[in-house]
């Protein structure tokens, strides 16, 4: 019996990883109704991380209201993992400071704040967590974790001793960091953050220049945010003795990687190294004949810590072919072929607006999976025919 593993990421602002997996499975069953279909939605630190880990561990979700990236109250949640061992909470930055919480016509990463992330950490401390896992991804902020720090009691001041307002651009005036009012419970908890190890804080591949435009920044605002992150790194180095500028993963979630280390005492981990401890992906790859993965976009950034190439790398190491489905195919998508992907295709088959694609995402993913698997069936038939003895 053919065994097919479906291990996608979510489609940002559209479908969760679980919904993508179910849509792919529908398409697969149209072609191979008797196949053994294994579902393994992959969490990457972004949306769905908390719920995914809670579900995998038999834990519980705890609702909480926090400040969203625009300063308005938003509903969020903290997870408590099940099982034995230290009491472990999990939060995701996307729940309090996610890009989906910022309407397209209000996207301005010079003003959005991570204050709600600090409130999530405090909520996890209220639950008496001994370890807190932080999923970094899908953020709509670029404030280096400054808002988070302020929610935790850290005071950030300019040269005149005035407290900085919320928002990433305010950090160009940062002169003093005062940790004396920081929540003392942080000293007694272990915080582990799952980050994209390739996200830098500064420079040509720094968070402002790579992700700022995606969050609504103009070219002028990108340069302003770069200067703000430079000033933040400089003051952290001079006053706290930490070199966050060169720290791998420090640029994760608009510089929250740097802020988590400097202001909350967190340890950064490559996200899959941390998150896949709680999932069973490698065993399922062993059991599969074919792997299907997916993400909203496939482009030159995908080999740098995105789900399709992480799944592809692990499957290729076990000699398993991988098909990747993508909402869009961007510049450099072919680079994924050198990182475990055997073939890729877009789920969009013709002219389609972004709003229409989002509204029809499940249908498009299902149909693309069906089309891809019909090509697989052609290959299976050709292979079977080639193996048959030829008549004399």
Concise account of the structure shown:
The chain has 392 residues and is α/β, with parallel strands linked by helices. Helix content is 36%, strand content 18%.
Number of strands: 13
Number of domains: 2
Strands ordered across the widest β-sheet: 3-4-5-6-9-10
Radius of gyration: 22 Å
CATH third-level topology of the largest domain: Glycerate kinase, domain 2
Following the backbone from N to C, one meets helices and strands in this order, namely EHEHEEEHHEHEEEHHHEHHEHEEHH
- What class would the helix/strand composition place it in? alpha/beta
What spatial form do the alpha-carbon principal axes imply?
elongated
Structure annotation, total helices: 13
CATH class of the largest domain: Alpha Beta
CATH architecture of the largest domain: Alpha-Beta Complex
What key phrases describe this protein's structure?
single chain; Glycerate kinase, domain 2; alpha/beta; 392 residues; Rossmann fold; five-stranded parallel sheet; 13 strands
Give the topology:
Layout: E1 3-6, H1 17-31, E2 36-39, H2 49-57, E3 60-67, E4 73-80, E5 88-92, H3 93-97, H4 115-126, E6 131-135, H5 146-151, E7 155-157, E8 176-178, E9 190-195, H6 207-211, H7 219-240, H8 252-264, E10 267-270, H9 271-275, H10 281-287, E11 290-298, H11 307-316, E12 322-329, E13 343-346, H12 354-359, H13 361-387
